[in-house]
Design brief:
- With 724 residues, the chain is α+β, with helices and mostly antiparallel strands.
- The chain folds into 3 domains: 229 residues, no CATH class; 80 residues, PH-domain like (Roll), CATH 2.30.29; 222 residues, 7 Propeller (Methylamine Dehydrogenase, Chain H).
- Helices cover 28% and strands 30% of the residues.
- It is built from 12 helices and 39 strands.
- The strands form 10 sheets. The chain has a 5-stranded mixed β-sheet, with no helix packed on it. The protein has a 4-stranded antiparallel β-sheet with strand order 1-2-3-4, covered by helices on one side.
- Strand 20 and strand 21 form a beta hairpin.
- Helix 3 runs antiparallel to helix 4 and helix 3 runs parallel beside helix 7.
- The chain is globular, with a radius of gyration of 33 Å.
């Protein structure tokens, strides 16, 4: 019976619910045009050669230079093609990733005699039988289908006007309980009164400025195809070559042309930023703007300024994430209620004559998007600088111009093959004393020979960054012997034996699959960082709230997620302790910090403040550390293996934070990583991680790397070179 019903889909009509914004579809089509792959490079090479041959014919005395320019034409075209392909590939990968993200909710549906058939873009299918639907409702925003075990929401912004009518009619025909939205037939009207606030929040103004610039960028054009990039690059390359190699009496005119083009391009790019800034900062002569939207068009009234547009005269109607754009009128959603937004959308879709489209910004920052489009001109500028430097060599093959290219990071990142590291003072060894070596101004011993250390993922350490950013230190994966917690798309998942209630599901039972593996459990949304100790787990959400479950330090066992602290910037865990950095720079500790033998080093009664003016904290199994705003490193915990600064700490255990180093940018304890890389609990492995060895690693503000601890020797910080 069911098989016969499924066959009806070949004769029934489908409605399409496409959640991919139309502008992303259009941009993807432009970037995937096939003709630019071969025709673009060949055409641009032809343009360059025609330019060069034309100048060789007009200026025969300069044939010696033109001969080398012809060679440069081929080199330039190869470089141009590579740059164009890279820029197109980068934009394609970005657009395709966003399309894939939106397509997860795209589907098409079909109303059959006994059920609604839903087919997702991924190929999965669902059936909603009419007899099993307790509630089917339509409101101004969406169709809401409530089944016995699942729900389906169809947002009207992703349905065409014809599909909205089709879904409404079919639901009214088949569903026993259908609460239909009564849509007016004529006479629809929305009146908006937008009040102008004199003092606009700085962040709000910046957001509006960015959104408006991205919208203006969308108005100016839908982006260059690969073909257009090649043609533009060919003309610019030709002009660069002419400016470089032709004699001065011919070059004056070309240099003026190139300068005019560059200035015009800068003006086109900069002018919107200036106008938008003036518009948002300028004081309004009136306190209110009235916008009237009805079945005939849109009317804009602001003081003596009045704009009337009919839907026939409007070229484009679009809804963006934060605004509406109708012809020449652009207005923000933040000044509208939810009901007003729905009413405006329905009127524009109903009477907009198919011009309505829902789009999203094709980037997060206007200036970053402009930078992406400037890849080809920027590459050509680099090529022009290269040609100026080697101009004499291109004119006379017997002359070679030398150039000393200075590394912009010279002295910042230590070369593994370099000799000794710099130190402020050197101490000569005494005959009766051993172990003396160079000492820095910190008073910490450092060996001249660098030690090689390995990291699971060197790039994730951000060693080339000038300063430490907390969002780059967040962990999205943490693993111990019995548990793994990880974050995907902002959602926290857990795999755990749950012996102490770490999952926070209300019990201490473990959920095993048929194959004997712990089942993945979804735990919390909107999570940005997760860490765990031996018997507990904590996570930081997007509201800067620190939550946890299990045998929580300082509070006891909690089988459900418990709020530990608010206004938190970062947190990390030792075996049985917790260190917390708040947004105000204070450092708080909870629980107990043990040494490697299991003896307590220090225990805290509840949450205890141990430091202030800090910008980063971290913890290992038996030690904790904080970097203060003056770049000083403070550590406390077990120092038996020298991981708290070795002999500089002057004690085997530190119950209170002690300053051990100045000029520190970043610190890692036990592992040279911000996250774990295992994908399942370790199940009592003898050695949990090869790179955990009771060591502390630091990066100085000058970029140099040092380490102290068991495998280093325990006497103090020594220079290291990071590989991985």
């Amino acid at each position: 019976m069911i098989a016969e019903q499924i066959k009806e889909e070949y004769t029934k009509e489908w409605f399409v619910y496409d959640t991919v914004p139309q502008n992303l579809r259009k941009r993807d089509e432009i970037l995937n045009q096939k003709r630019g792959i071969w025709a673009g490079p060949l055409t641009s090479l032809g343009i360059i050669l025609i330019y060069f041959l034309l100048f060789a014919w007009l200026i025969p005395k300069e044939h010696f230079q033109i001969r080398y320019i012809l060679l440069l034409a081929v080199i330039s075209e190869v470089l141009l093609t590579a740059v164009v392909r890279i820029s197109v590939s980068l934009q394609k990968s970005s657009i395709e990733a966003r399309i894939k993200e939106f397509e997860e909710k795209s589907l098409k549906g079909q109303f059959n005699t006994e059920y609604i058939l839903i087919r997702y873009f991924s190929g999965a299918q669902e059936c909603y039988y009419y007899n099993d639907l307790p509630d089917v409702e339509e409101n101004a925003d969406a169709f809401q289908i409530t089944g016995p075990d699942r729900e389906l929401r169809l947002d009207k912004r992703y349905l065409s006007r014809d599909d909205i009518l089709y879904v409404r009619n079919q639901m009214a025909h088949y569903c026993r309980i259908f609460r239909e939205y009564e849509e007016k037939q004529g006479g629809e009207k929305v009146e908006l009164k937008i009040l102008h606030t004199r003092d606009i929040n700085r962040n709000k103004r910046a957001r509006k400025k960015n959104d408006l610039l991205l919208s203006l960028k969308y108005n100016r054009g839908r982006g260059y195809s690969e073909w257009r990039r090649h043609i533009l690059g060919a003309f610019l390359t030709s002009l660069f070559c002419m400016c470089v190699f032709l004699p001065d009496n011919y070059n004056v005119f070309l240099r003026i042309v190139v300068a005019a083009l560059v200035l015009f391009r800068l003006f086109v790019k900069v002018f919107p930023y200036i106008t938008v800034s003036i518009k948002l900062r300028g004081k309004k002569s009136v306190d209110q703007t009235d916008i009237i939207i009805n079945e005939n068009g849109i009317e804009f009234l602001q003081g003596n300024k009045r704009i009337r547009q009919t839907y026939e005269s409007v070229k484009e109607i679009r809804e963006e994430e934060s605004s509406f754009y109708v012809g020449r009128v652009y207005f923000w959603k933040d000044s509208m209620t939810t009901e007003e937004i729905s009413a405006v959308r329905n009127i524009l879709k109903k009477y907009g004559r198919g011009k309505y489209q829902y789009i999203v910004k094709e980037g997060t920052s206007a200036w970053k998007e402009d930078l992406k489009t400037a890849i080809v001109p920027f590459a050509l500028l680099v090529l022009g600088v290269f040609m100026f430097v080697y101009r004499d060599w291109m004119i006379d093959a017997g002359k070679v111009s030398g150039i000393y290219q200075r590394n912009s990071y010279e002295g910042y990142i230590q070369d593994p093959d370099s000799s000794s590291l710099e130190s402020d003072t050197e101490v000569e060894g005494n005959g009766g004393e051993e172990g003396q070596s160079a000492e820095t101004t910190n008073g910490t011993q450092e060996n001249k020979d660098s030690v090689f250390v390995s990291a699971p993922d060197k790039s994730s350490l951000h060693l080339s960054s000038r300063e430490l950013r907390l969002d780059e230190c967040y962990s999205d994966n943490t693993v111990n012997q019995e548990s793994r917690f990880f974050i995907e798309n902002g959602t926290l998942f857990g795999i755990s034996a749950n012996r102490h209630g770490e999952l926070g599901i209300g019990n201490t039972e473990s959920d095993l699959t048929a194959k004997g593996f712990y089942r993945i459990t979804e735990l919390a949304p909107d999570v940005q960082h997760v860490a765990q100790g031996s018997e507990f787990m904590v996570y930081l959400n997007n509201n800067d709230e620190l939550w946890g479950a299990g045998n929580l330090p300082g509070t006891g066992q909690s089988l459900t997620p418990a709020l530990i602290m608010e206004d938190v910037a970062f947190a990390d865990c030792s075996e049985y302790g917790l260190v917390i950095l708040k947004n105000d720079g204070t450092v708080w500790c909870m629980g107990s910090l043990l040494d490697s033998a299991g003896n307590p080093v220090v225990s805290w009664d509840g949450a205890v403040q141990v430091a202030d003016h800090a910008r980063y904290v971290t913890a290992g199994c038996y030690a904790m550390a904080a970097i203060r705003e003056d770049d000083s490193l403070w550590m406390w915990g077990d120092n038996r293996h020298g991981q708290c600064g070795g002999s500089e700490a002057e004690a085997d255990t530190l119950a209170d934070p002690k300053k051990v180093r100045d000029g520190v940018k970043a610190v890692w304890i036990d592992r040279l990583a911000y996250r774990d890389y295992e994908e399942y609990p370790l199940y009592g492995a003898e050695q949990a991680r090869e790179y955990m060895d009771h060591c502390t690693y630091i990066q100085q503000t000058d970029g140099q790397m040092y380490a102290c601890g068991m495998s280093i020797g325990g006497s103090g910080f020594v220079a290291v070179v990071v590989g991985g």
